[in-house]
Amino acid sequence: MKRVDIKIGFDCNNSCDFCVQGDKRFKYKKRTLGQIKKALADAKKQRREGVVFTGGEPTLHPDIIAAIIYAHDLGFKNIQIQSNGRMFAYFDFCQKLIAAGANEFSPALHGSKPEIHDQLTNSPGAWQQVVSGIKNLKQLDQYVLTNTVITTKNYQDLPDLAKLLVDLGVNQFQFAFPHILGTADKNKVWLVPKKTEVMPYVKKGLDIGIKAGKVVMTEAIPYCLMQDYEDYIAEKIMPETMVFDAEGITPSYKDYRLNLGKAKRQECKQCKYYKICEGPWKEYPEIFGWEEFKPILK
């Protein structure tokens, strides 16, 4: 399914240590409803069937309901709200989103307990709101897929977080390695862990989800670190996506990742996964080097 990702504004009620958007909230105005409608119409002309409303925090946009209704009326089959999850704590707001046409919800949860999540988001009380929001969405029989950014502060907690997500009844969860841009770049010295250190915890977390029958994925972790877990690499199944960002339009997010965002070295050509692996975000080896990445020989 071809998809469009529309960043409808960069206002946010969190201040995450790993935010890839950085200070865009101070630089760019939110998109008007007219601009959002044009982006949706342009995407529909390209026969895209899915839309992700994101940001910033899309649930804070005053025209989010109208935007969802317009997307639904245009015939988008999959309408996802990618959110920090806090506004989902309001049951009536969830009902309004669903009535407008939203049918997939992607809240972010970064720890199994408040002291982890709230510290990373710099937002006291946020964890409880996200957990309440997930419960609301599941009570309303919605498809919920969560995202967790892996950091030095939470990677050892990933198995406990996986248990919580299973108990909450989410349909899918994903562990994503940080893209070291924006605020994440400013905090990289203490924020970004070594991939080899996090992998045992990532795999334990995946195992918990797999055993429970959940869809589980990782993002930005190369194949050489995912042996026996290759089926759970998100890049394999990511839809072809056009992105409307603050600075302009990215026609293909996959092309961006392959040509600009990520990197591979000469030795990677020896690996049997070379043709399908995207490599790490390019900023990672600039910090830690390439020693962790060992080609899987053919």
UniProtKB/TrEMBL annotation:
A molecular function (GO) term: metal ion binding
UniProt keyword list: Iron, Iron-sulfur, Metal-binding, S-adenosyl-L-methionine
Pfam families: Radical_SAM
Domain of life: Bacteria
Name of the protein described by the UniProt record: Radical SAM core domain-containing protein
Keyword field contains Iron-sulfur: yes
Residues covered by the Radical SAM core domain: 1-211
